């Protein structure tokens, strides 16, 4: 009973350590990005075209720089945050699975960055133009800078997360929750979920924008299945090699 309590306290200490390290990484990233807040704002404005953003409160310029810095700081600190998440769950992994931590962190960051770039270049310009076009020349836009920053940030965050499909699928396969066969068998359900997600996160709800958003997610799902088959095949081959070499496969976790 005492050992169990100690184990729980140890896990809580590890969690606290991971949260503190992640928070420090975000703060460092935010401190760096604070000085570049307006260049970052200009980047966020580009998909909307030639627009003017306004503020109505004396504190707004500082608060906008602060919000942009925090948002950008999270992006900058993302590799550290993801690594801390994996480090926290590492004790529950098998010894051979712990070797995949670095590749999985790299895969997560690459997919997230691809999602942000894709949304920024192809979806956000079309979606923003369509939304502003609903004025039909009858009303003139006066865009609040804080509202636009929140819109752009959530938009890019949604696309970054949506491109993590292969990462989450591979993680589920590695944990034994799903198999490549079940993924292939339930492709219709997956496609429906993707289409529903596309309908929710796209700002204009137009069929064109939803299709542009859903198409890469469907391709990513198919890529996930290929990645899952590859992982299973690699794991099977490694097990066979260990068996042929007379080495017993380690299925115990450290700690």
What would you note in describing this structure?
The chain is an all-alpha fold. The chain has a domain at 1-47 and 55-93. Helices cover 77% and strands 2% of the residues. The protein is built from ten helices and two strands. It has helices at 2-34, 37-45, 60-89, 95-98, 101-133, 145-162, 165-174, 180-185, 187-201, 207-244, and strands spanning 53-54, 143-144. It has a two-stranded parallel ribbon. Helix 3 (60-89) runs parallel beside helix 6 (145-162) and helix 5 (101-133) packs across helix 6. The longest helix is centred in the last third of the chain and has 38 residues, at 207-244.
Helix-strand topology string: HHEHHHEHHHHH
State the share of residues found in helices, binned by percent: over 70%
| Count of discrete alpha- or pi-helical segments spanning 4 or more residues | 10
Strand fraction band?
under 5%
List its salient traits.
mainly alpha; 10 helices; disordered C terminus; 255 residues; two-stranded parallel sheet; single chain; flat
């Amino acid at each position: 009973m005492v050992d169990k309590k100690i184990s729980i306290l140890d896990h809580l200490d590890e969690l606290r350590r991971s949260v503190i390290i992640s928070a420090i990484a975000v703060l460092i990233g935010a401190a760096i990005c604070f000085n570049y807040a307006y260049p970052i704002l200009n980047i966020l404005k580009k998909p909307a075209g030639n627009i003017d953003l306004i503020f109505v409160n004396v504190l707004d310029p500082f608060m906008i720089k602060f919000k942009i810095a925090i948002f950008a700081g999270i992006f900058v600190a993302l590799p550290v945050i993801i690594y801390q998440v994996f480090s926290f769950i590492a004790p529950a992994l098998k010894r051979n699975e712990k070797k995949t931590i670095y590749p999985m962190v790299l895969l997560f960051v690459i997919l997230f960055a691809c999602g942000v770039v894709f949304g920024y270049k192809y979806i956000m310009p079309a979606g923003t133009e369509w939304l502003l076009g609903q004025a039909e020349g009858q009303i003139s836009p006066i865009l609040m800078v804080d509202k636009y920053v929140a819109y752009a940030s959530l938009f890019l965050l949604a696309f970054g997360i949506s491109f993590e499909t292969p990462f989450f699928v591979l993680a589920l396969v590695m944990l034994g929750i799903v198999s490549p066969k079940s993924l292939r068998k339930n492709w219709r359900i997956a496609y429906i979920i993707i289409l529903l997600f596309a309908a929710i996160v796209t700002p204009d709800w137009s069929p064109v924008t939803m299709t542009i958003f859903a198409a890469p997610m469907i391709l990513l799902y198919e890529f996930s299945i290929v990645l899952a088959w590859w992982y299973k095949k690699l794991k099977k081959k490694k097990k066979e090699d260990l068996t042929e070499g007379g080495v017993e496969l380690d299925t115990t976790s450290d700690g």
